[in-house]
Amino acid sequence: MSESAVLTEPSQCELTLDNLLESAEGQKVLTCMQCGTCAGTCPYGDVTEYPPRRIIGMLKAGELDTVLRSGSLLNCVACYACMAKCPRGIQLTEVLLPLVKERTFAQLPEVPAELQKALQNTLRYGNPMGESPRKRADWVKTAGVPIRILHQDPRPTDVLWFVECYTSYHPRGQDNSRATAKLLHALGIDFAILGNEEKCATECARLVGEAGLFDTLMDYNMKVFGKYQFKRILTSGAHAYDAFKYRYGSIGFDYPLEHTTPFFAQYHKQLKPKLMKKLDCTITYHDSCCLGRHNDFYDEPRLLLQAIPGVKLVEMEHNRVNSICCGGGGGGMWLDTYYKAKGYERLSERRVKEALATGADVLAVSCPYEVSRFEDAIKTVGGGSKMIVRDVVELLAESLEA
Amino acid sequence: MNILVLLKMVPDVVEELEVAGDGKSLDASFLRTIINERDDHALEQAILLKERHGGKVTVVALDAPDIDDTFFTAIAKGADRAVKITDAPEGLTTQSAARLCAEAIAGLLPADLILTGVQALDDLDGLSAALIAQQLNFPYVGVVTAVSAGGPTATVLKEFAGGVRGEFAVTLPAVLGVQAAEKPPRYVPIAKVRAVMKTSKIETVSAPGEAAAAQIDVRQLAKPVVSSHAEMLDGSPEEVAGKLVELLAQRGLL
Amino acid sequence: MPSNIWVLAETWRGQVTETTLELLTLGRELGGKLEVVLLGNKSLAASLVGADNVLCAENVAPTPEAVAAALTQLVKERQPQAVLVPWTNLSMDAGALAAAQLNAPFIGGCKDIKADAGTLVAQCVVYGGKLEAAVAATTTPALFGVLPGARAASSGNAPAVTDVTVTLPEAKVKFTKYLEPEAGDVDITQQNVLVAVGRGIQTKDNMELANDLAAALGGAVCGSRPVIDQGWLPLSRQVGKSGMQVKPKLYVMLGISGAPEHVEGIKGAQLIVAVNTDAAAPVFNVAHYGIVGDALEIAPALTDAVKAKK
Predict the structure, then answer these.
(1) Which pLDDT band, with edges at 50, 70 and 90, does A325 fall under?
(2) Which residues contact B8 (CB under 8 A, 6 or more apart)?
(3) Is C122 exposed, middle or buried (0-12, 13-18, 19+ CB in 10 A)?
(4) Strand pairing partners for B171?
(5) Per-residue pLDDT, C1
(6) Which of A187, B241, C52, C147 could connect to C302 by a Cys-Cys bridge, CB 3.0–4.6 Å?
(7) What averages of pLDDT result for each successive group of 10 residues across chain B (254 residues)?
(8) Does A212 touch chain B (CB under 8 A)?
(9) Percent of chain A, pLDDT > 70?
(10) Is the peptide bond before B184 cis (omega within 30 degrees of 0)?
């Protein structure tokens, strides 16, 4: 039975631009030395009028309005590149930019239509696609292994698997979920899902400036967690992982947390002998922004890929901390039309060109947005290439014997 | 300008609609409601007029589940006042509901314009805007897609077929049945709605008088009986494309 | 007593609309005397074939207020059992206003009406086509808003004509002029192949997929209302109740649910192929061939297959 995410009172006093500079994080912001590394590393740095350095300068000078009116913040895809490289360790992507984006939003004469729809859908239906909440667990029917849904069978479980939106509704995301289910089953892990009680973790909307929407869904999800007993939360969504890890603590989230890729890497010893089918391919791994730069999970996916027989790994020119975002995060998933209208190159196309240059057969990813973005990009810039895109879990599942 | 906007909640068709056991009504257990899309456009048009000419926008609606969120969202978008009509009887049809609302709206006059959606997907026995216009004895035009005001008459565009529109001069005060606002309904950040919830109050008025008896009898509600259904093509996108291309080639369409 | 059924004629560009003639066919089935209210040029009465009589009043302004006032007066004087009104942008507001003035029900979205022991029961399309309701009128007179395409156009003899006079109130609504849509580059009503896009196309960018498919098939792109509202296609490409009526040999629908307002515009399409992610979408009841799938995947696959075949 799906409950509406009802608009409730704000959970507690959140950081805002007005009180930022007095806070601990704000003090860090003030240590900015204007080195410009952020602007230099930003994938859209060449078309962004106000990179973080300039934003901080304007904030200090009390001239933030100019920044807000420029709409420049909409270019940011929340890829954590600036934050990862900032020599002062300022929480740019995590804290400062969403606050400025939130204000930008309030001033925009018109919010780009697809973004608007995605946000409205998230509030109403618990997913940005606008699909019926009742269909969120439909993919389970074709999973091929038994999957327990907590509201039907509320017994305690070891792992609560928070599936997330793209992995529930999008056909390629469902492939990811089916693969994850197979792996969990093969490892004999006791797990269950929330089914259609689950709603979007809303991290991308938060990154694009919709803190109010984030809070509403956070309140809802925490209430649902509170209904069941489980030892840890596992999620397929890299952005969801970030939401739980860095934001949900503010209203009491303290469950042990895992993302599927590093989680399966922990089971490397048990998993490896089960990977019987030789895949015989060259794989290049794309470090996703959340897992990589933001959380330092660089080795785990590579460890898993190398556990698959017949796999040769090659690296793209920009890898690990230097990886180039697929362009989907921070609202980018719903701003493609907006960027196209401005004449920007699609980041996914820029990245796919690098992948193609490696000559790899497979572009491996670990964030659900990347799959469809890269598959699209291959069609556009691939020149007929046969390179395929697969999530790490899909490759592992494929290699599992039967 | 003083503008009243009448809103109503209708079943959200994103969900599967199930018929209740009585075979005549909707199964309420999974029913979710959403603002009538045309009313959302009416609200947007009202706010656009307020932005151009100044004045006040008052939103009015019958009490319904989730109506409060709709009111707060309207205020966050720019409406000045929200009035909820409470204690209306159950089971009102479009006609009886509209007449009840017209009475309540009469108590909120004077106004220059009364805007509401030209139709709703659960209308069975009338169009609200026309009913309100008749009851208040105001001029009325439906299927409106643009309004300019500024004086004792408003210039209104009505949409016909083939993209043709008709221009009308309407003496105010008037009731307009809105098909589409001049711009798509705006987005309002949730934080703003939450802030409005803390600071704004929704006024209430009691539903006046008795509801008129319904002049229709819904005998059955059911999924459409299809006399024909498409022949479905299955398979991967490539397989399906191949099958379709064969069909088209056979018919000389390629 | 035989019932009297009336049809409110609508005229467009100096001609009686096809929908009016369809309503005459339906009206005839409901028994009794079939009369038409023609608020326009008397010379058009002859085209109202199949009716018994035409009540004609000229010089009624094309505003909802004038039409409703005229209709209301005539109904009060002559008490028909029912009035069939075209459920079109042109007539629905006038019909609704007249019904309000008569304190009569206006049962809209009718795809059929049957007489059941003296009571008229309509089959109405509701909830965007997801459900249908059988709605009986329990009072008379009752007004019915009938969808285009409910019947074939009437045939038969030209009817008799009765001149009637109506007293119109002082006009508070004045018709000024028609505004034609900008001349589009393409007249979609003349195309043999159309690729139609709906909400399922999701973003303006994805329009490219439709353009590619249309180009491969040698046709043009058109859209349902939401796509035009977003500004992704001009008004001249809109198909449906508020847009064009098209009669292509092939109509490929990408991500369109099949709501009645759009379907109205494609009655004349010869072969309809629909792609939608929802197997229960009403569009599969009007299409000849259906594919449950994502238009964003099917369209490019189809484009490739068409190019390979040609």
Answers:
(1) very high
(2) B35, B36, B39, B61, B62, B64, B97, B120, B128
(3) buried
(4) B153
(5) 46
(6) B241
(7) 97 89 90 94 98 96 95 97 95 95 96 98 96 98 94 94 90 97 90 92 91 92 84 93 92 85
(8) yes
(9) 96
(10) no
Residue listed under structure tokens 């606002």: B181
Give the least confident one: A234-243, A387-396, B21-30: B21-30
State percent of chain C over pLDDT 70: 98
Question: Which is nearest to C223 in space by CA: C247, C250, C251?
Answer: C251
Determine what percent of chain A is predicted with pLDDT higher than 90. Answer: 69
**Cis peptide leading into residue A112 (ω within 30°):** no
Using CA atoms, how far residue A129 sits from A78, A216, C267, C280, in Å, is: 20, 18, 31, 18
CB-based contact B187 A210, cutoff 8 Å? no
CA C47 to each of CA A280, B65, C16: distance values in angstroms, whole numbers, following the listed order: 75, 51, 7
Place of tokens 């009505």: B158
3-state secondary structure (DSSP) of residue B31? coil
* Backbone angles phi and psi of A390, in degrees to 5: -140, 145
pLDDT digits (tens, 9 = 90+) for A247-284: 999 999 999 999 999 999 999 999 999 999 999 999 99
Do A337 and C205 lie within an 8 Å CB cutoff? yes
ipTM value of the model? Answer: 0.93
* CA angle, A107 then B47 then B34, to 5°: 95
pTM of the predicted structure, to 2 decimals: 0.86
Q: How confident is the model at residue A42 (pLDDT cuts 50, 70, 90)?
A: very high
Strands, DSSP E only, in chain B? 2-7, 9-11, 33-35, 56-62, 81-86, 113-117, 140-148, 153-159, 165-171, 174-178, 203-206, 216-222, 231-232
Question: What is Dmax (Cα atoms) for chain C?
Answer: 68
**pLDDT exceeds cutoff 60 at A7:** no
Which stretches in chain C have pLDDT values below 70? 1-3, 183-184
Give the per-residue pLDDT at B29.
Answer: 84
Sort out which chain C residues have CB atoms less than 8 A from B95's CB and list them.
Answer: 105-106
Strand partners, C134: B220, C123
Q: How far apart are CA A110 and CA A209, in angstroms?
A: 15
Using DSSP, state whether C224 is helix, strand or coil.
Answer: coil
Min distance B161 CA to chain A CA atoms (Å)? 26
Run of H or E including A285: strand A281-285
d(CA A291, CA A299): 10
Cα A196 to Cα A133, A202, A258, B70, distances in angstroms: 6, 16, 21, 24
Q: What does the pLDDT read at residue C225? A: 84
Identify the pLDDT of residue A5.
Answer: 53
Residues in B touching A123 (Cβ below 8 Å)? 190
In tens, the pLDDT along A208-235 reads 889 899 999 999 999 999 999 999 999 9
Quick check: A379 and C300 CB within 8 A?
A: yes
- Give the whole-angstrom CA distance, residue A4 versus residue B129: 30
Find out whether A302 and A339 touch, Cβ atoms under 8 Å. Answer: no
Q: How many CB atoms lie within 10 A of CB A280?
A: 11
- For residues C11 and C44, the answer to whether their CB atoms sit within 8 Å is yes
Do strands B81-86 and B113-117 pair parallel, antiparallel, or not at all (unpaired)? unpaired
Other C-beta atoms within 10 Å of C143: how many?
27
Arithmetic mean of pLDDT, A97-102 = 88
Check CB contact of C292 with chain A, cutoff 8 Å: no
Does residue A273 sit in helix, strand or coil?
helix
For A305, phi then psi, to 5°, come to -65, -40
Q: Count interface pairs A-B at CB distance under 8 A.
A: 61
Give the separation between CA B23 and CA C134, rounded to whole angstroms: 11
List the beta bridge partners of residue C125: C132
